[in-house]
Design brief:
Blueprint lengths: L31 H24 L11 E3 L4 E3 L2 H27 L4 H14 L5 H5 L5 H19 L1 H13 L3 H18 L3 H18 L10 H18 L7 H14 L5 H27 L15 H10 L5 H18 L1 H4 L3 H13 L15 H20 L1 H12 L8 H14 L7 H19 L3 H9 L13 H7 L6 H24 L1 H4 L9
Helix pairs in contact: 1-2, 2-3, 2-16, 3-16, 5-10, 5-13, 5-15, 6-7, 6-12, 7-9, 7-11, 8-9, 8-21, 9-11, 10-19, 10-20, 11-22, 13-15, 16-19, 17-19, 18-19, 18-20, 18-22, 19-20
């Protein structure tokens, strides 16, 4: 008797949220340009390091009279010290440019670039070993780790999924209201979660299922609904983080740098008061721009394309059952954390310390709500961030940003009576559009916030008036896939093209820059961030 073996092929269910977990996203095929960049990336980075680190000599990086003024104090060198300082400046420049090349071309994984960067700083003598390796212990690194613990608590207990599904079912009656619902969801999550990648991981399965309901499957089945829902979420994930100092580790780092320069704390309430209305306004402009200009929905795209439509989301919500004790505990922990963050002016406890305590409580046996094995910490991102912090420490040790800025202003013969508004527009613009080239918000923060502090000191303006608006532009990292981790992650959904994300993202970036300029002349004056009479 012949027995036939039958192999049943697993049918892909576009409405199954498990299909959109990060680890299940299909690996996107690189374009010819991306493949070419990956091939030339390594030799190009090596050449950049050798040319800028050893072969080329820049006069502005040398100490001629063995004496130099830096951003904080006067450093005096003998001849040997001056030569060493000058050599380290060139090496730091070479390492920086080589790292930028590797990050942009993605010739090797980003975390590996960071590891190479760290050991290069050590082997070239730019940083001592202890200082280079210590960046994994940076307070912002710990905040990121604790934030992923807390985000994992939301995912593991089902609170995040329950809230998002409930909100969509309650307020997402049609295509337009669905998009507005995600604006509100992103703002709420941004107040709780200080990792944009974690927010993207939570929301990705939900908006991908909704995209499938409206006929957007990605690949050959792209449509404007899919383009719009993914790109709007990418925008809102990032600029939602900009509404709160705890929205990302880079925000907290910027606040620490500015606070250290002026001798006062940049509080949660200060940042939120300044940026919450600005970011909400940008989110709604992004919604209008997507729906009316770049990705208008046809009549068919405004209607569910899959039988059952929103009923499938309702079934997913019903599967969660009644709210259980673990979910209640999770909500209580998060509300308390948000309360302590919002009242930091009263108690003075840092955001990192608050997140630390919250994560400990969440992990406690019998009392807590999540086990360590359920915690999803992307250590490759942590190593990537450590490299960015090490790069910033190298800049601080060599004072390369301040030296470069001074040389730039001296070359242009810009005098000390330069109008405040010109510096404000220039610095915020550089910070905003630098996101097109840099892959790390942390690295941009470590470069451009100290530059803003140095420029304010050089021209005699209040540090906060220039440095804080520059810091407010950290989160505009949504134009191209390599600009941020959420951008890279959501590009893998294959719902949109490079051209789609560039035209939408770049337009929003320009609008955001105009917003911060207008805010500097209006709202920031009311809050006494920018001075009166200098515009």
């Amino acid at each position: 008797m012949e027995i036939k073996n039958t192999v049943s092929k697993e049918v892909f269910d576009p409405l199954d949220m498990n299909n959109y977990r990060i680890e299940k996203l299909p690996k996107r095929t690189k374009s010819k340009l991306e493949k070419t960049l990956a091939i030339v990336g390594i030799p190009l980075s090596i050449a950049a390091f050798l040319v800028f680190g050893y072969l080329m000599e820049f006069d502005f990086l040398k100490i001629i009279d063995y004496e130099t003024l830096t951003t904080g104090a006067k450093k005096v060198y003998d001849k040997a010290g001056a030569e060493l300082f000058s050599r380290n400046n060139h090496l730091m420049l070479g390492i920086f440019i080589a790292a930028i090349v590797l990050w942009i071309t993605e010739a090797i994984p980003n975390y590996l670039t960071s590891l190479i960067l760290i050991i290069s700083l050590v082997l070239t003598g730019v940083l001592p070993e202890k200082q280079a390796y210590a960046q994994l212990g940076h307070p912002v690194m710990w905040l990121n780790i604790m934030s992923f613990v807390l985000a994992s608590m939301l995912v593991a207990t089902g609170v995040a999924k329950r809230f998002a599904l409930w909100f969509i079912l309650r307020f997402g009656k049609n295509a337009s209201s669905i998009f507005i619902s995600f604006i509100i969801i992103n703002l709420i999550l941004s107040a709780f979660i200080s990792a944009t990648t974690a927010k993207a991981a939570i929301l990705l399965p939900i908006f991908m299922v909704i995209a499938a309901i409206y006929g957007a499957r990605g690949g050959e089945n792209k449509n404007n609904f899919g383009r719009s829902i993914v790109l709007q979420n990418l925008l809102n994930i990032n600029i939602g983080a900009g509404a709160f100092v705890t929205g990302s580790g880079a925000n907290l780092l910027a606040a620490a740098l500015i606070g250290g320069a002026v001798g006062q704390t940049i509080f949660f309430a200060d940042w939120m008061m300044a940026m919450f209305p600005v970011m909400v306004g940008l989110m709604f402009i992004g919604y209008i721009l997507a729906m009316k200009v770049y990705f208008p929905l046809s009549k068919e795209e405004r209607l569910p394309q899959i039988e059952g439509g929103m009923d499938r989301l309702r079934m997913e919500y019903q599967k969660l059952g009644k709210v259980n004790v673990l979910e209640i505990k999770s909500v209580v922990i998060f509300v308390l954390i948000l309360g302590f963050w919002a009242t930091d002016k009263l108690h003075g406890i840092s955001a990192t310390a608050v997140a630390f305590v919250g994560a400990i409580v969440a992990l406690l046996p019998r009392i807590g709500v999540v086990k360590w094995n359920d915690v999803d910490i992307p250590w490759h991102l942590m190593l990537f961030s450590a490299g960015a912090y090490a790069l910033g420490t190298g800049f601080e040790a060599t004072d390369l940003p301040a030296i470069s800025v001074n040389a730039f202003f001296d070359h242009l013969n810009i005098t000390s009576n330069t109008p405040f508004w010109l510096l404000y527009v220039l610095l915020t613009g550089v910070m905003t559009f630098s996101a097109l080239l840099f892959q790390s918000k942390t690295m941009r923060t470590m470069i451009f916030v100290p530059i803003a502090i140095g420029v304010a000191g050089r021209f005699g303006y209040d540090v906060i008036s220039l440095a804080l608006p520059v810091a407010f532009m950290i989160e505009h990292v949504y134009v191209l896939p390599f600009n941020s981790k959420p951008a890279a992650l959501l590009y893998e959904t294959d719902q949109y093209t490079y051209a789609d994300t560039f035209k939408y993202g770049f337009t929003m970036m320009v609008i955001a820059w105009f917003f911060i300029i207008i805010a500097g002349q209006t709202w920031f004056r009311v809050l006494e961030i920018t001075p009166n009479g200098l515009f």
